[in-house]
From TrEMBL:
Belongs to the ycf20 family. It comes from Dasyclonium flaccidum. Keywords: Chloroplast, Plastid. This is Uncharacterized protein ycf20.
């Protein structure tokens, strides 16, 4: 639920002017890939609470952006 909330914020606030769509998408994808690499590369991070929480929020953001794309397409 928290990730979906963040996805809604990330997809609407920078796009209000229409100039930041490509830049905000690049930042979101780069951050997502960097977090994925650091979490899945280090086996010790998978067992801790905070990296698990960050990973779940990251997955929620991806899901939320996916749902927002469907809302915009219909």
């Amino acid at each position: 639920m928290l990730g979906f909330f963040f996805a809604n914020i990330l997809s609407t606030i920078p796009a209000q002017t229409g100039d930041w769509n490509i830049i905000s998408a690049a930042i979101i994808v780069t951050t997502n890939e960097t977090l994925s690499r650091s979490i899945y590369q280090n086996q010790n991070l998978k067992r801790n609470f905070l990296p698990n929480l960050v990973n779940n929020i990251r997955i929620g953001i991806i899901y939320g952006l996916f749902v927002d794309a469907f809302k915009l397409g219909s």
